[in-house]
Amino acid sequence: MGAAEEGSDKRVKNEEYANPFDDPVENDSTDSLESSWFTPKRLLVLFCVINLVTYLDRGVIASTGVNGVPETCNSNGECTHGTGIQGEFKLNNFKDGILSSAFMVGLLLASPIFASMAKSFNPFRLIAVGLSVWTLSAIGCGISIGFWTITVCRMLVGVGEASFISLAAPFIDENAPVTQRSAWLGIFYMCIPTGVALGYVYGGLVGGAYGWRYAFFGEAILMLPFVIMGFFMSPLQLKGISHDKDATSNKSLGSSHFSRFCEDVKSLLNEKIYVVNVLGYISYNFVIGAYSYWGPKAGYSIYHMTDADLLFGGITIVGGIVGTLTGGFVLDYMNSTIPNAFKLLSVATFFGAVFCFAAFCFKDMYMFIVFFLIGEILVFATQGPVNFVSIHSVDPSLKPLAMAMSTVSIHVFGDVPSSPLVGVMQDKLKNWRKSTLILTSVLFLAAGIWSIGVFLPSVDRYNDDNENPTAPSNENKAAKKTAVSPEP
């Protein structure tokens, strides 16, 4: 190589390092793996553990050891002191439901921002920034002094989580073996129910033994090593994402970034497969979110479970691990295509709804446990396929935003309203069996929506290298038409 070319290369590298978060750009994360400590399996393990700790927090805030019970008084005026957050801050069920959903405010605002910033800054460094915010917010929850202070900290937890949920799955999908992508996604999303379930157990044990505040301090300690690793390890780059040098060097970023964000969102809304997938996911998450928050209390009330946290935690761990892994491996066995994913989503959710609905009809606790466990295995089988569709139905450059908007949607329209709404419904009905049966029936709606996707023409966009999805070339359009799946 000539001296002029070497000088040019050095200038390009210097420009790429001009921003502290803008590390050398690679066309594919697989290329950067060659010069990084991360191998595909190490990357999977790392992200799985981070996901586990993130969702541990969801279980902690819902556990009776941390969330506690409110003060109660009988007809004679004799009152028993409340416990945990609900008892110390004197929260009713509605406020308690708001507390469980407060993180979504931060997640809603930050997820699209982090996803859009992935085009200008290194996504791996953005994850580290988000995890830093998450760690500090967990500490804030532990030192909160009232309802509003802990609510604000829960919002900031959502900000910290936003970067990770937007960017982790695309990294995993790109680095997984081609024939095992659904299985790897299944392993990653298996950590969601497992983390929530471990949170029930962890929150019950730590909260009961040392007080609810120490449960949050423990979370922060668990996350700290991954924050340090994210800042100091050699970063990776996503396929289809090329950093916009003009955007990162320009001080007036607002209008151009907002305009590009609006164009990207419009492109997502034009993808019918993506929209149908997210609509089904919203209905599904409406139920799962309420299960995760109110499940232990409902079980304690209906079946007089003495260890509701431990029992629901155990059911969720087994159902989550078996179901999520099975769903990913079954889709790979069927051949990982979008129509096959929709078939698996609709069938698994329908039969899962049947078993969960039947479970709450039984008066015997042991019959409930058997049927609810089978139902949980079936409904958790959706985790790999549903995220496979979200990633593969959009242009590669839109994958972070697709994951961000999917996550924001399922929370804003799913588990965020479901927790307080179920709380209000229970306050009116004062019957947990009726409340859970009404809630479970929404799973049938999710199965129906996902069944629509089976009959829509679909295109797997994974290998589409076009970096401007809002204006595809005529050649790309023609190629996409020929790639439409022949399946119904």
Structural overview:
It is a single chain. The protein is an all-alpha fold and 488 residues long. It has helices at 3-16, 29-33, 40-62, 84-88, 93-101, 103-117, 123-142, 147-175, 181-210, 212-232, 245-249, 254-269, 272-303, 308-334, 338-361, 365-380, 383-392, 399-429, 432-440, 442-453, 474-482; strands spanning 72-73, 79-80. It has a two-stranded antiparallel ribbon. The longest helix has 32 residues, at 272-303. The model is unreliable at 3-30, 245-253 and 466-488 (pLDDT under 50).
Give descriptors for this structure.
two-stranded antiparallel sheet; 488 residues; 21 helices; disordered N terminus; disordered C terminus; 2 strands; mainly alpha
